[in-house]
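Summary of Year 1 activities. Much of the first year was spent building the evaluation harness for sequence design. The harness presents a backbone, in tokenized form, and records the residue chosen at every position. We chose the following record to illustrate the format because it has been used consistently in internal testing since the harness was completed.
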């Protein structure tokens, strides 16, 4: 059996390093797109596994933090399935951190050409660390519902940022996407109306998610079989309150589809609004089903997955709305796809 020489090891390391962050890379490519999409997927998966921790009563399966127990970093056989589920969710955080690191390394050498990608990837990476810390506080406070809600909101923000990075990487690396989403397609007063609507969609999307955490913190799935603090809201009225921003968001989507047809928005933007409407309707149907059927675990799990998808689609609508529009007097950023198109340059 031949022994690997130091030169061979150095050559292997150089190959890996250049694959992850080649010195010549100044523009996003397939690898950058892959890491950006992976960022979205693993953060959505973290919401799913975090939900399963709560729904199976495993929130205190590891009763302390950062260790699983006072004497062990990992779950032990004596802790049973609850310990395994909680420890599995903690382990997934390591994968989320690794993907965030790969996404950051993939764009770090193009920070001068595309500083937005650099800062987006860095912020998601910082979010992983913050999320781990808040997860620890969640355990140490005995699953306090306010802290659990913050834990979920951080995940939602990370999904939104990761999705924005995906959209920008696609526009920079795929000519067909750059052409379909080129800037300046909705201009003047129409562009102003579009951006106002996009901001409204973003605010309402956040409210839907946040008020949803209040409903969760009031409901029966506390995350542990022991005594766990719950919100003191009336379950009926907090659920009704949750539907208010959801209906307003659906109304904004319908308004967007009407406005889009009237003002001739690009097809890619109208599709994003239509997708958001479809996600909202499905989420609403699941929500009503779980409300009238005693919040069964399967329905709540689907609703959690739907919430992650909702965040990603809201981020898509907002980012794409700003990408294709331009208000009076706004210059195109240098190097932005479409900036070189003389048809889009002010006279």
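For this record, the design step produced the sequence shown next.
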């Amino acid at each position: 059996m031949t022994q690997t020489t130091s030169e061979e090891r150095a050559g292997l390391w150089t190959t890996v390093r250049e694959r992850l962050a080649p010195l010549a890379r100044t523009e996003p490519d397939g690898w950058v797109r892959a890491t950006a999409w992976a960022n979205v997927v693993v953060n959505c998966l973290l919401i799913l596994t975090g939900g399963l921790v709560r729904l199976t009563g495993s929130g205190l399966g590891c009763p302390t933090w950062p260790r699983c127990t006072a004497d062990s970093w990992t779950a032990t056989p004596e802790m049973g399935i609850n310990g395994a589920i909680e420890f599995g969710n903690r382990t997934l955080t390591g994968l989320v951190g690794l993907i965030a690191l790969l996404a950051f390394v993939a764009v770090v050498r193009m920070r001068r050409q595309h500083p937005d990608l650099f800062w987006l990837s860095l912020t998601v990476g910082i979010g992983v660390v913050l999320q781990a810390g808040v997860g620890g506080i969640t355990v140490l406070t005995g699953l306090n519902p306010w802290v659990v809600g913050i834990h979920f909101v951080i995940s939602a923000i990370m999904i939104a940022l990761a999705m924005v990075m995906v959209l920008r990487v696609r526009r920079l690396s795929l000519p067909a996407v750059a052409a379909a989403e080129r800037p300046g397609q909705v201009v003047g007063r129409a562009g102003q109306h579009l951006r106002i609507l996009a901001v409204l969609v973003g605010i309402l999307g956040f409210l839907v998610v946040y008020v949803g955490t209040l409903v969760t913190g009031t409901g029966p799935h506390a995350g542990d079989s022991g005594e766990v603090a719950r919100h003191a809201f009336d379950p009926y009225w907090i659920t009704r309150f949750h539907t208010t921003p959801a209906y307003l968001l659906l109304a904004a989507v319908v308004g967007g589809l009407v406005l889009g047809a009237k003002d001739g928005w690009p097809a890619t933007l109208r599709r994003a609004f239509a997708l958001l409407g479809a996600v909202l309707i499905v989420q609403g149907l699941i929500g009503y089903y779980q409300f009238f059927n005693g919040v069964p675990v399967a329905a709540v799990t689907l609703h959690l997955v739907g919430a992650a998808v909702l965040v990603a689609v809201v981020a898509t609508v907002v980012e794409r709305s700003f990408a294709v529009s331009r208000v009076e007097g706004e210059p195109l950023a240098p190097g932005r796809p479409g900036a070189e198109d003389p048809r889009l340059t002010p006279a």
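The two ends are 71 Å apart (CA to CA). Quantitative recovery figures across the full test set are reported in Table 2.
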